[in-house]
Amino acid sequence: MIADIRLFDEYRIYLLHSSFTVIKQSKLSGTLPVLILSIVAPLLVFVQSTDMNVLSGPLTAAFGATRTQVEWTVNAYTLTLAAGLLGAGGLVDSWGPSRSFRLGAGLFVLSSLAAAAAPNVEVLVVTLLVMGLGAALLMPSSLVLITTGVAGKAHTVRVGWWAAAGSVGMSAGPLLSGLFTQLSNWRGVFWFNTVLCAVALIWGWVAIPRTVRKRGHVDMPGLLTAAIAIAGLVYTLIEAGKDNGTDVYVAAVIAILAIVAFIMVERRSETPVLPLAVFSDRVYRTTLLQGALFNFSFFGLMFAMGLMLQQGRGMTAFQSSLLFLPLTAAVLVSNLLTAWLSDRFGTIRILAIAQVVFIMALLALGWTGVAGSLPGMVISLIPSGLAAGILVPIMTGQSLTTMPYELQGAASGGFNTARQLGSAIGVAVFGLLLGTDLITGFGKCLAAAAVAGVISLAMTPILRKSRV
Question: Can you name the CATH fold of 281-468?
Answer without folding.
Answer: Growth Hormone; Chain: A; (1.20.1250)
